[in-house]
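EI: anyone free to look at a 201-residue chain?
SC: sure, send it
EI:
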Amino acid sequence: MVEGLRERKKQRTRQALIEGALRLFEEKGFEETTLAEIAEQADVSTRTFFSYFASKEDVVFYDTASRLELALTAMESRRPGETVTGVLLRVIEESFEQATAYQYLTAEEAALRVRLILTEPALQARALLMLFDTQLRLARALHEAFPELTLADAAAAVGALIGAIKLSVMATLDQEQSMADLWVIARRAAEVTITGLHTLG
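SC: here you go
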């Protein structure tokens, strides 16, 4: 009982830090916002902030690790008779489902986060490093799920799929799209890429 209450309190604090940070990033700008200001928004100390996040960047990318683990698990649980493109499409669908659940965020906050990641230099740099690591791990997982694929082919498939989604979203970001619109664009990019990847079986 006590453990459950403690965990719920931690989740509320985590959510307050994420919401407060995004609000400040929109009002003041990412670089101009301090950790002390984020902590104040959540009514906690700066020391408490570091119990949840190591930096401002970590607040923005709060769910990256869990989303990667979900994708890796989906690849590792290849179903009987499932093709390469079938697995990739399932991974993308499950990723979309998790993203559109807006854990911790409203749809508006989720859209703001996407814009921040794609426009703030510090977040762009962090996103590129994380994207490179993510794609390598997914490529290795795909290769293990389908040993008939070379690692190079698995990497090409993962890179094509993720690259198409990321670039299609970036190309339309200045059109003031809603989060729902962005997901439609991302899904279309995935469909186009999956069609081209059918040569892999």
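EI: The domain at 61-200 is CATH 1.10.357.10 (Tetracycline Repressor; domain 2).
SC: 👍
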